[in-house]
Design brief:
This protein has 236 residues and is of the alpha/beta class. It contains six helices and nine strands, in the order E-H-E-H-E-H-E-E-E-H-E-E-H-H-E. The strands form two sheets. It has a seven-stranded mixed beta sheet, with helices on both faces.
Length: 236
């Protein structure tokens, strides 16, 4: 039987590299949980300034455009807390400085569930391998959640310790838990469509692609629309 996650946590935190990543990865789940009273925080680590094939694009302008796109999509999904860490694309490292910021965020927001990218997912068929920033951020988030955020001798100046209950890894080759997103699949499509700098074909195209992906995941889960994750159950 597919493992369908039906419990809505009190607080959730989604930490991703680029401004469009959280919407693509888990926008349906975040919208659904926010609608049901979960306090959702989204953290975007990279500024998105290099996310263009056009040599005439100016990174300093693109990052502002992408921030506005992310703000618009968050408001569509009902997400009220959004933080931008603004590392230039390709320049985030899983180092002490980055982990100390992530640990401070985890200890401050105190989420039950943390979403991030599966850092072990490398090759997706023959046509795509995972962006470095996705892998670096995913690995640093895992390192920040456990053991660092939960133990007092790691980053003692970063606030009182906090034990995250579950981590849900998106962009995974090994999904083992699903969230049914029938009520929010259209909101997810609209949110992804906000990132026009990345998906210039517009909202209708984005909605169609989102629905197809959600149907695929739903097929695995035995429901119409879903998002799939690899779950790590750490406590509680
Ligand atoms: Zn990305």
């Amino acid at each position: 039987m597919p493992d369908l996650l039906t419990t809505v946590p009190e607080r959730a935190l989604a930490v991703y590299a680029h401004p469009d990543d959280p919407d693509v990865a888990c926008g349906g789940t975040l919208a659904q949980w926010a609608m049901l009273g979960c306090e959702v925080t989204v953290v975007i680590c990279n500024d998105g300034g290099k996310g263009s094939k056009d040599p005439d694009d100016v990174p300093a302008q693109l990052r502002l455009r992408r921030r506005k796109e992310a703000e618009a999509s968050a408001s569509l999904l009902g997400i009220r807390h959004q933080e931008f860490l603004d590392y230039p694309d390709g320049e985030v490292e899983n180092d002490l400085e980055f982990r100390s910021r992530l640990v401070a965020i985890v200890r401050q927001r105190r989420p039950d569930v943390v979403f991030t990218a599966d850092p072990t997912a490398m090759f997706f068929g023959q046509g795509y391998y995972n962006h470095r920033d996705h892998r670096v951020v995913g690995e640093a988030v895992l390192d920040a959640v456990a053991p660092a955020a939960a133990l007092p001798h790691y980053f003692p100046a970063a606030g009182p310790v906090h034990q995250v209950t579950d981590v849900l890894l998106s962009g995974t080759l090994e999904p083992d838990v699903w969230v049914e997103i029938g009520a929010t699949v259209d909101a997810k499509g609209a949110a992804v469509g906000c990132h026009r700098s990345q998906f210039p074909d517009g909202e209708e195209w984005a909605s169609a692609v989102v629905r197809i992906a959600a149907e695929d995941a739903g097929h695995q889960a035995g429901v119409t629309f879903a998002e799939g994750f690899k779950r790590l159950h750490l406590g509680g």
